[in-house]
Amino acid sequence: MNTITDTAKMKCTAGTIENSLVVTSQTHDSVNGKLQATEEDKQANVNIMPFGQCKLKPTTGGYLPCMPAPTKWENTSFSTIDGKKELNSASCIQCAVGGKITFTDTGGNDFVSSEVE
Q1: Is 114 a residue whose pLDDT tops 70?
Q2: What are phi and psi of 48, to 5 degrees?
Q3: Of the residues 8, 36, 73, 110, which has the fewest C-beta atoms closer than 10 A?
Q4: What CA–CA distances, in Å, run from 44 to 61, 67, 68, 82, 111?
Q5: Using only C-alpha atoms, what is the Rg of the chain?
Q6: What share of residues in the chain are helix, strand, coil (percent, to 5)?
Q7: Within a 10 A sphere around the Cβ of 112, how many other Cβ atoms?
């Protein structure tokens, strides 16, 4: 599985646009100059920005704005950074509103991490 780094693209099954991950969980391990993501990169509006409008919140004439509510990353790597499991291209996170967030690219790298757990 490819390692996820800062600026990796994500989508939510309930959102209308893609967004980029912002890595803040660690400041020293990087690939191609971009910080590697860990399971702690899951804060709404810090690491995971809104995905446009939420298709699970219909309103007259459209949908309400997305307000991500990420829970816990799944399919993380065995590898860790400071005791935090690394994210990889198979990692995903459920939104408490109902959507599922997955990666559509790795952040512009092809570095392969260890096996998924």
Answers
A1: no
A2: -120, 110
A3: 110
A4: 26, 8, 6, 22, 26
A5: 14
A6: 0, 45, 55
A7: 11
pTM here is: 0.91
Strand 19-20 vs strand 9-12: parallel, antiparallel, or unpaired?
Answer: antiparallel
Structure tokens of 12? Answer: 């939510």
Asked whether the beta carbons of 48 and 21 are under 8 A apart, the reply is: yes
Cβ burial, residue 96 (10 Å; 0-12/13-18/19+): exposed
Residues 6 or more apart whose CB falls under 8 angstroms from that of 6 comprise 21, 22, 23, 34, 35, 37, 107
Residue with tokens 């757990």: 117
Structure tokens at 86: 């690394």
Mean pLDDT, the chain, integer: 93
Total residue count of the chain as it appears in this document: 117
